């Protein structure tokens, strides 16, 4: 049996079955409808696929065209970017060159400024070295001064040297004497000769500095109190010694100076040891500092100058008398000279009067009229005051008009 016969037989049987069974007919119709729908859907899908393929081809062509355009634009942009990159590189190179040049100049200027600062620093270091050397020498001097002040004899010499400098600067030679011998055999540090034949004034330059230094170096209140008591006792003993040795009636003044070579010690003594100061005053001992001694010396200098002026008063009076005589002679001579000047002035006034007259006459002579003989014929004969002078060329007539 061939396949075509089987399909026909199958179709015939199917038609018979459909004709006998309505449900099967309906089922066949539904199946046919489904098949038609599937066929339609398949054809539509194929059509859609064809349309999608066409759209995809069109889009692909557009994408290819856009890609080509993009490639052209990318190439153009690459060229632009290359040119811009070259310009940017050139600008960066120029800026780097300028920056390098400025950096070089700045570094050279900074180097020069650094060298200048180093030179100034070296100069200042040299000055500092010099100042340090001076400070070291000053420290040595201070150490030497401390050594001097630590020794009683050298400290007394230091105070005496300062006192001598003040006295020698303030008084003339002969008005003072250092370490003279008095009648009792003692030698004060200085005596100042007073004016008007008064006894000399004694100055003592020694000062008990050990107790003072101990009082300043005390670490406790008891040690400071003990040092203050020792300083008070030393001062009282020193004041008593000055009063007994240097206050000699008829030979020295009844007052003496106790020289303290420091203003700070002088102020501290007057502030903290009033009893010592009062006792010294009662003993007619005046405690003086360098400034007070200088003031006293200036007062004595003024007194000595006044004494010398009084001693030379008669000489000054004689000189004044001779000066007045010279002034009288000068007054007489000035008066005589004034008379001579007055007479000379009168003579000068008369000379000026004569010169004025001569000047007026000269002016009139300059205004004279000179006429020739031919011109004189036309002159009227009623002018008897004219005087003529004969000449070879004609008659010259001079007309003089007296105004006086």
Automatic annotation (TrEMBL):
Record GO biological process: DNA recombination
Instruction: Provide the transmembrane region boundaries.
Output: 23-42, 285-304
Low complexity composition bias: which ranges? 373-385
Keywords in alphabetical order: Coiled coil, DNA recombination, Membrane, Transmembrane, Transmembrane helix
Q: Which Pfam families match?
A: RmuC
What does the function comment of this entry state? Involved in DNA recombination.
Q: Which InterPro entries match?
A: DNA_recombination_RmuC
Family recorded in the similarity comment: Belongs to the RmuC family.
Name it.
DNA recombination protein RmuC homolog
Tell me the domain of life.
Bacteria
Annotated region (Disordered), positions in chain? 372-394
């Amino acid at each position: 049996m061939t396949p075509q016969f089987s399909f026909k037989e199958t179709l015939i049987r199917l038609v018979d079955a459909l004709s006998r069974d309505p449900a099967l007919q309906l089922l066949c119709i539904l199946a046919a409808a489904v098949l038609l729908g599937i066929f339609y859907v398949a054809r539509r899908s194929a059509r859609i696929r064809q349309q999608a393929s066409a759209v995809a081809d069109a889009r692909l062509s557009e994408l290819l065209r856009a890609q080509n355009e993009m490639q052209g634009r990318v190439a153009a942009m690459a060229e632009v970017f290359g040119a811009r990159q070259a310009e940017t590189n050139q600008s960066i190179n120029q800026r780097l060159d300028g920056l390098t040049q400025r950096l070089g100049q700045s570094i050279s200027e900074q180097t020069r400024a650094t060298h200048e600062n180093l030179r100034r620093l070296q100069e200042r270091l040299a000055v500092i070295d010099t100042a340090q050397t001076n400070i070291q020498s000053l420290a040595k001097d201070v150490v030497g001064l401390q050594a001097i002040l630590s020794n009683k004899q050298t400290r007394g010499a230091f105070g005496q040297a300062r006192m001598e400098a003040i006295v020698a600067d303030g008084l003339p030679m002969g008005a003072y004497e250092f370490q003279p011998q008095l009648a009792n055999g003692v030698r004060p540090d200085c005596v100042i000769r007073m004016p008007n034949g008064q006894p000399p004034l004694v100055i003592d330059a020694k000062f008990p500095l050990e107790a003072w230094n101990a009082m300043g170096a005390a670490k406790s209140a008891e040690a400071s109190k003990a040092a203050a008591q020792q300083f008070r006792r030393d001062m009282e003993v020193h004041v008593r010694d000055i009063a007994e040795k240097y206050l000699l009636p008829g030979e020295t003044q009844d007052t003496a100076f106790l020289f303290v070579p420091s203003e700070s010690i002088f102020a501290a003594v007057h502030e903290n040891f009033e009893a010592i100061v009062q006792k010294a005053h009662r003993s007619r001992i005046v405690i003086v500092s360098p400034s007070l001694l200088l003031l006293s010396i200036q007062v004595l200098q003024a007194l000595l100058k006044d004494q010398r002026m009084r001693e030379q008063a008669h000489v000054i009076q004689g000189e004044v008398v001779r000066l007045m005589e010279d002034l009288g002679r000068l007054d007489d001579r000035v008066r005589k000279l004034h008379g001579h000047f007055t007479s000379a002035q009168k003579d000068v006034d008369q000379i000026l009067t004569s010169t004025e007259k001569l000047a007026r006459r000269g002016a009139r002579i300059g205004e004279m009229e000179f006429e020739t003989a031919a011109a004189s014929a036309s002159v009227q004969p009623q002018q008897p005051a004219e005087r003529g002078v004969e000449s070879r060329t004609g008659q010259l007539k001079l007309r003089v008009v007296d105004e006086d």
